Amino acid sequence: MRTTSRLAVLAVVAALTAAGCSSEADSGEGGPVKVGISTTLTGALGESGTVGKNGVELAIKDLNADGGVLESEVSLVTQDDGLDPAKGGENARSMIVEDDVKAIFGPVASSVAASEEAVAEEYQVPIFFFSANSAALLNDTYTDYAFQVVPNTVMEPRAIAAYLSKKSKGKTIRIGTFAPDYSFGHDSVDGFLAALDDLDVDYKVVSQQFPALDDPNIGPALNDLVAAKPDYVYNAQYGNDLVTFTKQAAQFNFFDKTTLIGMFGVSELKALGDAVPAGTVAFNRGPFWAFDDADGFVKRYKKEYGELPSEWALLAYTAVQSWAQGVEEAGEFGGEPVSSALSGATVSTIRGDITFRECDHQADVSEFVGELAAEPHPQYGVPLWKPGTKFEAEFDTISEPC
């Protein structure tokens, strides 16, 4: 990994520590420091949570191999939220009060994230969202201590709408939507349709379906969707739910006349195998193949966990990088100094440099869109995207102004 992408800016540690220490407990005296992750590790979203945890673990391992943060070794406290907002809040509280964690990472679901965010605000502990991406987290429930390193539910659908605007070429298109029935699903669909309006895309919504999260019985909703004969279906599902949809949709001959738009990452594509629908439009928040500096991370992750990293692992890794550089800049581990140091700051990550806006702490990150390939990638053994189809929607074209 290049020196510019190291987790800690060690050259300025001594000066910043001398200038910024507020207490012996928070300044970093070489003793161990804990951070926490409360995320979904079981059930339908368990895989997404687990690979995110893996990304946090690997980042911490790399941190410690590089001398730690402020010369302190970092350790991780892990708890399972069971996809329960109340449990997520309880976990966050116990990690802060009982384990004295200096930062929290996660979780998968935005509903759980909102609960954890409230606890982080109460105790003034920085919290970093790398999977949960509801725009409400940094708007409706804004706190100085929350940061988001992932495109939110405004940015992501705007990127897809921009791609679709190019593909439709002014023709009227029939749109269907399929999304989980909770805040993320509804926010994502609303953002997608609003973006189509903003881009003057000529479209007609012919079907909208909102199955419950982790609902295996999607046959009736899928039947209604297919009967509506949409040209494109925007699907805001992910993980096992998206795999289930894709397999069942094939049984309805869905892909004969309809183009699916879905959040396909390495995990979903590996699970589908030969059933990957070539030509499907895929969007991804952090495809490792899109970043020049991620090659070393991919190799280390595969060696550590025996598989390629999904976007959740890569995004989690950059969340830890962001926290570590905030600590180094602040010269201590205290929540208020670290949060202040990161507000408006630019940090170096395996995704390149990213900046946290002062107004809401949203990172200036891009969304990526491409079309699924028919054959496995020669280097990675999994069907990724067709060569030449990658579309990178830049931050300044997909985010709301402050």
Overview of the structural elements:
By secondary structure, the chain is an alpha/beta fold. The chain has 2 domains: about 5-150 and about 290-355, Response regulator (Rossmann fold), CATH 3.40.50; about 155-285 and about 370-400, Response regulator (Rossmann fold). It is about 40% helix and about 15% strand. It contains 14 helices and 14 strands. The chain has helices at about 15-20, 25, 45-65, 85-95, 110-125, 155-170, 185-200, 220-225, 240-250, 265-270, 295-305, 310-330, 335-340, 395-400, and strands spanning about 35-40, 75-80, 105, 125-130, 145-150, 175-180, 205-210, 230-235, 260, 280-285, 345-350, 350-355, 365-370, 390-395. The chain has a 7-stranded mixed sheet with strand order 7-6-8-9-10-13-14, with helices on both faces. Helix 3 packs across helix 12, helix 4 (about 85-95) runs parallel beside helix 5 and helix 6 packs across helix 7 (about 185-200). The chain starts with 12 loop residues before the first helix and ends with a helix.
Major β-sheet strand ordering: 7-6-8-9-10-13-14
Which runs of at least 5 residues are low in confidence (pLDDT < 50)? 1-25
Number of strands: 14
Spell out the helices and strands N to C: HHEHEHEHEEHEHEHEHEHEHHHEEEEH
Beta-strand proportion: 15-25%
CATH topology of the largest domain: Rossmann fold
Q: Please identify the structural class as seen in this structure.
A: alpha/beta
Name of the level-1 CATH class of the largest domain: Alpha Beta
What is the radius of gyration?
Answer: 21 Å
Mean pLDDT: 89
Helix content: 40-55%
Q: Roughly how many Å apart are the termini?
A: 34 Å
The total number of structural domains is: 2
> How would you describe the shape?
globular
User: What is the number of helices?
Assistant: 14
